[in-house]
Amino acid sequence: MTEKTDITLTVNGRDFAVTVEPRRTLADTIRDDCGQTGTHIGCEHGVCGACTVLLDGEPVRSCLMFAVQAEGREIRTVEGLAADGALSPLQQAFIDNHALQCGFCTPGFLMLATGVLERDPDIGEDELREVLSSNLCRCTGYQNIVKAVKSAAATMKAGR
Amino acid sequence: MSDRAMGRIGESVTRLEDPPLVTGRGRFAGDINLAHQLHMRLLRSPVAHGRIKTVDVEAARAMPGVYAVWTFDDIRDVPPIDFREGRIEKYEPFRQYILARDRVRYVGEPVAAVFAADPYAAEDAADAILAEFEELPAITDGADAPGAFDDAGHRTEADIVTQGYGDVEKAFAKAAHVIEREFVVGRHSGVPLETRGAIGHYDAAHDVLELHGAAKVPHRNREALARMFGRPLNAVHLFESHVGGGFGVRGELYPEDVLVCAAALRFGRPVKWIEDRMEHLLATNHSRQQRHRIRAAVDADGRLLAIDDTFFHDQGAYIRTHGARVITMTCGILPGPYKVADYRATGHFRLTNKTPAATYRSPGRFESTFVRERLMDAIADELGIGRLELRRRNAVGPEDMPYALPLVVLGDDVEYDNGDYVGLLDKALDHVGWDALQADLQRRRAAGEAVGAGVAMFVEKSGLGPSDGAKVTVDPSGAVELITGGASIGQGFETCMAQICADALGVDYRKVRVVHGQTNRIEFGIGAHASRATVMTGSATNEAALLVRAKALDVASDLLQAPADTLDIQDGVVFRKDNPDGPSVGLGEIATQLLPTRKTLGGREPGLMAEGWFHSDHQTYPFGCHIAVVKVDRETGHVGVERYVIAYDIGRAVNPMLVEGQISGGFAQGLGGALYEEFVYDERGQPQSVTFADYLLPTAREVPDIELLLREDAPSPRNPLGIKGAGEAGVTGVGAAIASAIDDALQMPGAVTQLPVTPQRLKVLLDGARD
């Protein structure tokens, strides 16, 4: 169990050579071994979604995966959203629409919504709410999160 | 002068807090790592009540990476955790030790602590501890008969807390009607998305004990830790970083906080503890659970002659830092917006074998508003008076203000400051289109739908005094630093304080760096709780910024050769009001002129800085009402919220966008307590809600967008800015309004007597009605 393996994780286009126990979660590895602490851990049983990252473009719960399972895959985290210091439309929309308070769930929502909008830029409101209901926020009551994602979708569409 | 938004009071500007939080650069407790740190893991009690027979830690101690394992014997010198307000002798026997002494009293109570090089190794070692308990009968309901708390003769009824006035018995004797009911509020709590975390560090070079990951009340916790470890205050410092939600539970002083400090002191190494979610649901304060037996004496017109409430407050296993705060508050605020001629509240403060309870956002008000508003509905129904009409007849009017009651809330004599409660209710009814809504609901019910509306009125309280201070400094670059003893738990504290400071001083709010939660930066601080921050710390900030402004104008008056009262400051630049485009001087330049080495100093104290204080005798009392429209699915017992309107008079909103955020977030939590969230225990005291699959937080699917009617009709006369608190109004009335709406939807008056109204409970109601 405690024997360690050498793996290389690709996080936001950068390679991290890490040595981990097979049981080590992807979330812990991203945070503590790769030093990317923007990904948060809120429940460790796959319900809250604070640890959501994109794995080959798909939102996944990084607390429910082992790091060794992510080798060779493309991992994107909240740290990779802003390009050259410019916030992504979604990050900007979260600020403009007051879609965050404590900010703990925010990276998970940003990654979830980024994945969703990349896959389905024209997603309807009902479906969007349904998808966003897979993550938990305890501060906002969600209405500004929904508003922000819709606003970002419109911005992204205008920019396409 | 520029006309872009400067973040003056009243402007919905974006938050200063956001940029690091949307880019993954926040620094929460889990993100803090100190060199050579150890990780702590606790063995927690698996039984609700029992004697500790053995705790064998030898195997655990021998495991790889383990540095130490502690049981009670290792921390005998550490006293139990005291009350925030200091000694309360009669509750002392009920305080919690940081590791269980000879008995365990709830599932989740810390029994042993493992310290290891790695959190995985620490958890492995905790699993290897062999602990045996002799299980004792558990008390799982605060309304059950009290039993023995310990072998020293203490009983589980820690106290009977009473408040009231007048002659209640006499009022009941002459009443035209007496209405008596029982109402139950379920056990639920704040459950922030970030679990707790604490990192203890002993700085031997300076002999300072540090606690990182602090929240809510760092200064008060510093006092407590200094007392517990026998250290002077200046040898203990607490550091708040980002905090992932507070809601009353995060930031109180818990056993784990003290353990990491004790270990850091003893080992000379940093010790980090991060709570996991299951631990959180077992170990962090629960709240709310009360059973009320309440009766009202009313005259023939439905006027309240008296209310007599006896209730059982299920405190859980220990009395923690809050002492009797929630139960006392419940007694003090239950009458709410109504005139009650005679009043008596009797609260049984009962210990049970469950997780200790304390405050959760709107403590005592969520509970008492549910109970009082349910009672008002019951009176209306029984007397055949409309639910709204009954409230109008009994409400405190603007002509009664200020309205004093011989009751106490948070040690403060209750005196509502101002407001037109019925006026606000009417505005809310107007907004919702009440008559048309009623007609529509009636039509839909006739067509077979179970739809209905409910209304709840409430009085909130905020801005508890007596005093708070703040320091404002402008440096030679023109940057402003505002040092407060406040705390940021995600509510937008930095932005609000920056706006108040910017408005008073005449700068862009983005120029203001707000310091909070650092005990080494300011001697005193109230933190962030009880909706105090904007009123108290905001008013102190205003005072300090005005002093700095006056000093800046005094210096500028020399430099610009013009009397100070002919000058103004905008965007950090001082200019003559009669010649805005003429000569001017920046605040940075003025700060330079005030450097200690400058001749320009004249007789002034160096530095463009000042400390401001605000003192308050009484809290402020914001008020509001909630209107819920729900649809019940008779088959599944599901309650869907179709519309939710919150009318709230906040006095003056510093940033309306943030106020709306506070209220919609509070609403979601209230909805959780009304319909979904409950810590359920079995008869042996085994908790059944230990994951997010069992303890159900509302998601985006359950929480509708609210309609907020934010009013500033009644600015508080109790502070210069007219501010009242924003933090709790979204929660307060939700249980009450939803319950009333469900009654209406089912056309079963008085049906809902217990929160949360889970599908199971609703099915029981529906099936009962069918039989």
Q: Give the strand line-up of the largest sheet of chain A.
A: 2-1-5-3-4
What portion of residues of chain B is helical? 25-40%
Per DSSP, the total helix count of chain B is 19
Number of extended strands of chain B:
28
Q: Structural class, judged by helices and strands of chain B? A: alpha+beta
Fourth CATH level, the homologous superfamily of the largest domain in chain B? Aldehyde oxidase/xanthine dehydrogenase, molybdopterin binding domain
Report the sheet-strand fraction of chain A: 15-25%
Describe this structure in words.
The complex is a heterodimer of chains A (160) and B (771). Chain A has 160 residues and is α+β, with helices and mostly antiparallel strands. Chain A folds into two domains: 5-80, Beta-grasp domain (Ubiquitin-like (UB roll)); 89-159, [2Fe-2S]-binding domain (DNA polymerase, domain 1, Orthogonal Bundle), CATH 1.10.150.120. Helix content of chain A is 34%, strand content 16%. Chain A contains five helices and five strands. In chain A, a hairpin with a 2-residue loop joins strand 1 (5-11) and strand 2. In chain A, helix 2 (89-96) crosses helix 5. The termini of chain A are far apart. Chain B is globular and about 90 Å long. The mean pLDDT of chain B is 97. In chain B, helix 9 crosses helix 10. Helix content of chain B is 28%, strand content 25%. Chain B has 19 helices and 28 strands. Chain B is α+β, with helices and mostly antiparallel strands. In chain B, the strands form seven sheets. Chain B has a seven-stranded mixed β-sheet, sandwiched between helices. In chain B, strands 7-15-14-13-8 form a five-stranded mixed β-sheet. Chain B has a four-stranded mixed β-sheet with strand order 18-26-27-28, with helices on both faces. The longest helix of chain B has 28 residues, at 533-560. Chain B folds into three domains: 18-25 and 464-615, Aldehyde Oxidoreductase, domain 4 (2-Layer Sandwich); 32-136 and 195-243 and 250-279, Aldehyde oxidase/xanthine dehydrogenase, a/b hammerhead (Aldehyde Oxidoreductase, domain 3, Alpha-Beta Complex), CATH 3.90.1170.50; 290-408 and 416-462 and 619-770, Aldehyde Oxidoreductase, domain 4. In chain B, helix 16 (656-676) links the parallel strand 27 and strand 28. At the A-B interface, helix 2, helix 3, helix 4 and helix 5 of A face helix 1 and helix 16 of B.
